[in-house]
Amino acid sequence: MTDNVTSNRETMGFQAEVKQLLQLMIHSLYSNREIFLRELISNASDACDKLRFEGLHNSALFENDSELTIHVSYDKEAKTLTISDNGIGMSRDEVINNLGTIAKSGTREFFTQLSGDQQKDASLIGQFGVGFYSAFIVADKVSVLTRRAGEKIDQGVSWESDGGGEFAIEMVERAPRGTAITLHLREGQEDLLNGTKLRTIIHKYSDHIVQPILMNKEEWKDNAQQVLDEEETINQAFALWARPKTEISDDEYKGFYKHVGHDYEDPLAWTHARVEGRQEYTLLLYIPARAPFDLWERDASHGIKLYVRRVFIMDDATQLMPHYLRFVRGVVDTNDLPLNVSREILQESKDIEAIRSGCTKKVIGLLEDMAVKDPEKYTKFWDVFGRVLKEGVGEDFANKDKIAGLMRLASTHTNSPGETVSLADYISRMKEGQDKIYYITADTFNAAKNSPHLEVFRKKDIEVLLLTDHVDEWVVSNLSAFEGKPLVSVAKGGLDLGKLEDEAEKQEQEKDAGAFKELTDKIKASLSERVKEVRVTHRLTDSPACLVADVHDINANLARLLKASGQKAPVSQPILEINPRHPVVLRLQAEENKFDDWASVLFDQALLAEGGQLDDPASFVKRINQLMLEMSSS
Ligand code: ADP
Ligand code: MG
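That is the input. Now the predicted structure with adenosine-5'-diphosphate docked in place:
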């Protein structure tokens, strides 16, 4: 080494989050140590993909060596493992950024929020995109040598760290293009210095990697394994999705998922198809078993990997999946796009539109199939992704009915709280004469289940769907009917039970409306602007009053949601409905002095019962106390 080389050696500190992560790697992940190899090979493979892609525009980058491979070797004496690739490599700045920080801000935030127990969960690591640091699970020193494709030989970079707070970086001469990562194994990790062991790990985690993973051949000689000069390919090294379905085992599908899905758990299900016709493409799409941590983040990366004729084009091709299927992972490989396709072109491409619609159909088909053939598995899916899928009712007009058919909803007619029904179940149980699907929306399951609006439905044993996800308001505003049956809110408009009410009941209602006209007018006058109308209802059996929204007004739950999300909700006055059989209402009829107080309390309690907030809670409490005192003194 010349002075010149040593003089450019610099020591730098890791970003604080990286230090934290390194601690986690070293202390918590020991039981899952093998994943380090998977991560480093996956990075090497990504580096080869990147070179292949950049090389499409600039073939000089290949430096006359376009056979991209990954090597794994070990040195028993030095107790080192080396993983090298002839991919894109890194410049000095790239090394500092990529191996000194956690680049993705969402990842960083997520990481700092993790509780101690979650941090021990190795399975989350893949989702972080912090795979490189897993090298420190087995190594107490890691050295990286790299040269970016196209750069001169003196532009090599050496990076070294013991996983403490710092790393050293230095410019060096390096002839081979790409990156070599050498792990100096910790004490107790020597069993990894074994060809058979390494081959087993590579098969287990990295068989699906598209580039050949090479190791030197070995043979038994004099009771010891001898490493030969000749190399052999360890993995299958063939795009899994391009192979015929019949030749692929479930384990291979699962292994590939872990690579494309950045997940350590098995997927819940997958669909693999070759589509021929106007567009020709192959898709291999997976439903994960659990939600990625950023499922609800607005600009989280999602989408699938796009290949054109087996050449990797881009990650996270969001155009290939609608937003409500953002949890789907996998690859699409098409013959119809140019290799130099950009994200901008994708946005406008008719071919992509057709592929997206094809992929969407496949995923929906997969879910429909699962719902029928394996309801238990489907329930698992629904618990994790149901709320996301529901967005599709409003987002995807063409598939709206199918998505509605996939919904699983809480209802008054299930036995336990977690249990759900489909709209088809609901319809199959409808009462004779029932022609509508009734639902209620509320903030919580209990608020829905105990709402006064349900009283008459309970009495008549009519099923009502209990919708308590935020997205449900959006669903019902986009879904006016299912299989020809209109969806009707029980908290909106006049109660119209159609044929579910007999003539006698209808006549009684008319009679009551007349008999209570004076009272309802008086209450309206007393409450004035707070209500749009006051009327008699038969929807109540136990409660004295409830609020309903007028047919074209937005209901109270939606108004609250809009307000909570900082949006302006149109102010609409509710309609107060009173129960003509209730003693409190009858008592009110006779009330003279305190009529206004009684009317106010009636309104306020109706508002409370449906989860609303009182404008003036203190006055409500005062009135209640006064009334209680009067009762006890009379
Ligand atoms: P991820 O792969 O999810 O981005 P990693 O921690 O595994 O996260 O790697 C961090 C970054 O380091 C990569 O994104 C890549 O830019 C760079 N990197 C790691 N290994 C290599 C390699 N073998 N060749 C080139 N770049 C690499
Ligand atoms: Mg990685």
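Residues 39, 43-44, 46-47, 85, 87-90, 98-99, 129-132, 179 surround adenosine-5'-diphosphate (ligand 1) (CB under 6 Å).
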